[in-house]
Write a structure and sequence with these properties.
CATH topology: Rossmann fold
Helix content: 40-55%
Family: Belongs to the short-chain dehydrogenases/reductases (SDR) family.
Radius of gyration: 18 Å
Order of helices and strands: EHEHEHEHEHEHHEH
Bound molecules: 1,4-dihydronicotinamide adenine dinucleotide
GO molecular function, one term: oxidoreductase activity
Strand order of the largest sheet: 3-2-1-4-5-6-7
Organism: Reyranella soli
Number of strands: 7
Strand content: 5-15%
Protein name: Short-chain dehydrogenase
Number of domains: 1
Largest sheet: 7 strands, parallel
Number of helices: 8
Keywords: Oxidoreductase
Shape: globular
Amino acid sequence: MEISGKTAIVTGAASGIGLGIATALAEAGANVAMADIQKDAVEQAAHRLSGTNKQVLPVRIDVTQEQSVIDALAEAERRFGKLHIACNNAGVPMHGTRLVDVSLADWAFVMGVNVWGVIHGIRHFVPAILKHGEAGHIVNTASVAATQNRRGTNQGPYSMSKYAVLSLSEALEHELEGTNVGVTVLCPGPIATNIARGASNRPDHLGGPQVRPTDEAVLAERLARTGIDPKLVGERVVDAIRNKTFYAFVSAVPVDTIKARHRRLEAALETSWTTSY
Ligand code: NAI
């Protein structure tokens, strides 16, 4: 679809990949509602972008709260009119803890942002796009972690949340067949962002802001060493929207691990216990 003149909402837009997506969409001529839980940070980011004559609006959102998603959408529509593009991108990390040791608050935190955030986006942004009949697009940020569990990182809950985002995206694509609304599942490898500090926005009812210096340092070091510029991810998203691409991989991908996982699945399907339908 053509992006220029259209309206987009991007969650998690104060930092990292969300900021990269918002920047690339604004450069492609879209009006962009930049939505984030960090009000000051998103206002500053929007201020920097609007200084380059881009049409951007900072909006406070907590994607774990349905009413907050409804309010942010209403604010974006009040300012820019019809919504065409929604990027469900806000996410938090969860790594360095074995599954048996992950607390219920940790589970609720990672599922709340990474999974419920996307569910709320689907429930409210998708109808807003469909209601006017013009072309539209949904981008859900998963990860390469949606296609394999990385050994030795203890990021099972994070990976599970991203498998869920991939599954939601596949189901959404099926449901939107026959409409002019496309779906992309964004699967980045390492990107140089602030995600290692993601638990610092943890809400009070889930234990409040948390800092785990060792785990954060390990992840931050890995991303700083191997991660690419989030701006490139934004450009990948713009390309995927223009070309209606479902899978959008970007940065380094553990190709052999992903293929090995799929070969194992295929081999399991060859057993005499199965028939095809
Ligand atoms: P980041 O930490 O730089 O940006 C995430 C943004 O989401 C922050 O501005 C934060 O304030 C916001 N946010 C957190 N909780 C929120 C909530 N409840 N409501 C609204 N906004 C909230 O991290 P990054 O890396 O840019 O992450 C963006 C997405 O990319 C996430 O879904 C992450 O899982 C995914 N991702 C990141 C990769 C990486 O290597 N950095 C690789 C693959 C996927």
